Amino acid sequence: xGQFAGYPIWLINLDSNPERYESAKKQLxxxxxxxxxxxxxxxxxxxxxxxxxxxxxxxxxxxxxxPLSPGEIxxxxxxxxxxxxxxxxxxxxxxxxxxxIDLEPEFLTVxxxxxxxxxxxxxxxxxxxAGTGEQKKDLGDGYTLVNxxxxxxxxxxxxxxxxxxxxxxxxxKFFRPVDVDLQFYPELNLTVYSMLPYRLWSxxxxxxxxDKMSGGTRKGGTSFWRNLKYRFxxxxxxxxxxxxxxxxxxxxxxxxxxx
Length: 259
Description:
Layout: E1 3-4, E2 7-13, H1 18-30, E3 36-39, H2 48-54, H3 57-63, H4 70-88, E4 93-98, E5 101-103, H5 107-114, E6 117-118, E7 122-124, E8 136-140, E9 143-146, E10 157-161, H6 162-168, H7 178-181, E11 192-196, E12 200-202, H8 209-213, H9 224-240, E13 250-251
Protein name: Glycosyltransferase family 25 protein
Domain Glycosyl transferase family: 8-181
Keywords: Glycosyltransferase, Transferase
């Protein structure tokens, strides 16, 4: 089992993408890390009953701008399965990575500092839009923990506590893509931070599996008014909330970091 400081590292990978797994595994090995591979759920293979058990189309119609694609449903269910494993096995914290990643050597420092933090739910390890956050908490060595008015998209990599997993599972069914759902953190009382600078990036050399499964687009099924309502909901959150209170996060660095 892949671990860092006693916490599991899980790597989400479709069976049909061994090249992605090998790329991520080699990069992790260079840093002295191993990850436990999780066989990702292929959305198109789900039965109607399996989709109905996890996906709520009525709430999707009400709270998102378009129906979810099979790829998005499979992606969400993959992450959700790992969250459930945390609860079932009482895992205090885990690092969850998708397979289309590029790692910098300093990624080890990020993992070390995360293990020295308390009182948080989720810390994103990557950002597809390079958001800088709203407020900062100094973690030393040039690293800061930030909160957001506009939580960045992507679930390329993140750390999650057991408390955070329970909050994410508090809905019986989902109705938005998993990365978009994180932007609606007040609904779940979820704290979402990022540690900057990022040392993990989404690898552009790999084509999005969700786009491939969706025929290259995920824009069908929307309307002007549905899209407008969704954007108003998101704007309301960004105008009235921050994704966490940094003063509540406790940072206790070791006397001498060993990375």
